[in-house]
Amino acid sequence: MDNQDADTAIEVANATVRFATDQGDITALKDVSAKIGVGQFATIIGPSGCGKSTLLRLIADLLEPVFGSVSVFGAPPSQARRARQLGFVFQDAALLPWRTAIKNVELPLEVGGRTSRDRPTRDPAELLDLVGLAGRHQAYPQELSGGMRQRVSIARALVTQPQVLLMDEPFGALDAITRNRLNVELLNIWAEIGTTIVFVTHSIDEAVFLGQRVIVMSANPGRVHTEIDVPIEYPRAPDLREEPGFVAIAAQVRKALESA
Amino acid sequence: MKPVTTLSETGQPSRPPRKAWHYYLRTAFWVILGFVVTIAAWQAIITIRDVPNYVVPPPGDVWKSLNNDFDTLWRNTKPTAIESIGGFLIGSGGAIVLAIVFVHSRILRRMFLPVVIVIRTIPVVAIAPVLVLMLGNGLAPKLVIAALISFFPTLVNMVEGLESVNSQSLELFRVLSANRWEVFWKLRIYKSLPFLFASLKIASTASVIGAVVAEWIGSDKGLGALIILSTFNFRTSLLYATMVFASILALVLFAAVALLERLVVRWQPE
Question: What 8-state DSSP symbol labels residue A241?
């Protein structure tokens, strides 16, 4: 392992993923390579069907490549998963409706058997406060709004203190106001815990606002089209979106998507 | 370090409002009216068409029988209740166990689900005499028939319920490195409960049918035996009163399951 690898959290090298369907095999990802540094906030954007969720699932050990390799901290993703280094936030929160908010956050501490013991964890109640749900710990998911549910699911993903947080369009179903607010809060959480975050979105605005780097993907088959750096200082405030620097980068991302 | 903002969202959805007492009163009014209209129509048809009492008794005669023959009816309800409840518990319990086996073993499921479905297609009235021949006139054949009739809806629904987990939930448990045991006890069981109770409600009333049918074939006590006896003696008022008791027994079992469901399934299934 050379020096450069010590700073690498996630490395995807020439990964190809295929799914078997009734119409024959579909190549979801073709020859995809990407490197994400430790503590980095990377966003992935692309049209639907470009395999951005597939790429995330590859890193989370929910899928395996037919060719190529994926490594998380220099080891296979399965090892990272079993070592509780991965947190995953799903598109529709995926909360268990029979559990209260606090019980949902506690779920990761109850499963995983031997692998979960002796690992550092965070206090579920403290995490719910952190994501802005103080006073709603005992609420059931159906009593919470979409934004609140997604907050609970973020708290659940953080309870095992993962080094890598994978987020699959977590705010995609929310209204613009709630989404913008959660973007700011997510950056605050990131500033506090400093984990590596890979965030999939189909919103240019969100991709540029959150990420240090935007990975633009193209479809049919899914490939990495280009990568665009976002050299804007944190903390980032909501009115950043009107500033020329932001607008220029957003335009760059949009052009990349159009040419993808 | 900058403090983390904890903005709360507006428009907190609250629990569904509790229904007021006058809502229940209004519902009860319409339900009672429905029964009154039905019974009035029954009386009217008998009067207009001049139907003889031994074919269809007027509601008043059935009411009299319910009062006068109460001891007979109650004495015969007890064995039927024991057979129904016992059969219901055995049948549903067995179905739950088999559903769990089927969900965990594709091979066993592929082998035996067709067998189960073929057995299901045989009408209970056809199986009943066979079982009476095999098991005699005692409690056993009634329990088995009531169990059989409760078994199938529960099995089918329970399998469906245990498999109703969506792919995101399964992915969640995989990311958490949960084993099959944990997926079962923390996810599948809960997912299956609304399905299970839907089928238990069907099974609870069906088990009464099973017990009554079993009593027709070989019994001197129970509501089924009373139905046969009163039919052969042309005591149609008693026959109808027996049907009322059988119906009440089924309703009580149904209500018990519904109550249990309210206590257990306290969340709103998606």
Answer: G
